[in-house]
Amino acid sequence: MGQILEGTKSALMLLLSFDREIYGIVGLSLYVTLTASIISSFVAVPLGILLAVKDFPMKQFVVRFVYTMMSLPPVIVGLVIFLLFSRSGPLGVLRIIYTPTAMIVAQICLVMPIIIGIVYNGTKEKGREIQEVAETLGANKMQTLVLLIKELRINIFAAIVTGYGRAISEVGAVMIVGGNIRGDTRVMTTAIAMLKSQGDYETAIAIGIVLLLLSFLINSILYKLQQEES
Amino acid sequence: MEIRKWHVLLMTVLLVAMTVIGCSQGAIDDHKESGQSTGNSILLATTTSTENSGLLDDILPILTEDTGVEVKVVAVGTGQALQMGKDGEVDVILAHSKKAEDEFVQEDHGIQRFDVMYNDFVLIGPKDDPADIGVLAKNDILKALSIFQNTEETFLSRGDDSGTHKMELQLWETLGIDPKGRWYVSAGQGMGAVIQMTNEMLGYTLSDRATYLSMKHNLDLDIILEGDGMLFNQYGVIAVNPNKNVQINYEGAMILIEWLLSEKGQGLIGEFGQSEFGQSLFIPNAK
Description:
The complex is a heterodimer of chains A (230) and B (287).
Chain A: H1 2-16, H2 20-53, H3 59-70, H4 74-85, H5 100-136, H6 141-151, H7 153-169, H8 172-178, H9 188-198, H10 201-229
Helix pairs in contact in A: 1-10, 2-5, 2-7, 3-5, 4-5, 4-8, 5-6, 5-7, 5-8, 7-10, 9-10
Chain B: H1 2-35, E1 41-47, H2 48-52, H3 55-67, E2 70-76, H4 78-86, E3 92-95, H5 98-106, E4 110-126, H6 133-137, H7 141-150, E5 155-157, H8 163-175, E6 184-186, H9 191-201, E7 204-208, H10 209-215, E8 221-225, E9 232-240, H11 250-261, H12 263-271, H13 274-277, E10 283-284
Parallel strand pairs in B: 1-2, 1-3, 5-6, 5-7
Antiparallel strand pairs in B: 3-9, 4-7, 4-8, 4-9, 4-10
């Protein structure tokens, strides 16, 4: 208990001292997770909506596949991305292994199915109705999609935040494909894992506090938006 | 239909959650159990190199047969091994950073430090040695490191406060170089992971011989430099000060230490690895 208290105290001191390395790690975490979430959102939101409002062969199979992918273990994603992009792998020529780009690719694989799945679930009930109204009013396909996104924005936002939660809390995949290189691919989660293995609990707690604050901030934004809606 | 699907999903999530909670509870219990060392069981904190090489798996069962002492091994970096000793969480430490170990004893966290065995560090790098270290530096590690600063070849550092990392930092300090720049990659991971990264990035790194040999068959890396006296890697064993808490099993720790230093223990250490690698991975040198 004493260790936790002492650690928290020194952690707060460390945060207030504006240690450049720690803020660099926080910055990289935000860059990687936000980029992965934004790219995933642009692809996954329309896909999730289409999956809900369109009928096509094998639809049930696709839905089941998306659900399975939602609970994909990060270390498996890490392993697959590593094997694809390692020097001897089929995409090795791109030379992105051990770069933030590789970490973003891995996180997109984890985040995208989550957003697709949640958007699909939220859309399949109200989606048809909205689509029919739009079509009755003479909207084209693009206008219909925009209307759907507008009407379902709370659900979509929740999907993105859940996806983002996955990205920011993930450690296995980014450790494997990023390599936890100091000043280059070290993010908050890999830093905490590393600091723990060195017995440097104080810095680990400091970064843990930042991680928690960020999660709190993002969830507060979601909560506020939901409040405004109702 | 939809509701049932949600039920299945929910049940799955619950099941997974329960399994996870169950497992972590088990882990906590395990930890408690191992922390409360009873008469015949001790907790040893050691570095990843002794664990990864298979040495401990090889010799500890024989110790248990001989003495009845059962050893539970926690493999971490030297930094954390010593920290666990300071916190009184383990009974005995087997590490390889003599300076840090001596300080540990001086600060009264441990009773006495004993030399057990040594092996050596080697500089490994791409087979074709693009920085020409083998030719330019021969077996002079300091010269080799000073070359890295002036070339664009990548040098990977463990960067994890391990014994290997401490050794590397000491070499830079001797050189008066503060390693910084695109060429210096600080990985913050264990030896195996860093060797794998070195292989991918076609860089160079300082490795203990045992870990390198055990991974060699999967690598495009060769030993570029070896045999410098500065690369000597001494392992020491220390019993944690029993005054820290009542759970520390000092007697068990001393039985382990005496056995490691005995003729039998030292003989087993020297034999280890000879059949598989054609050479000893650790050379016993207890005094």
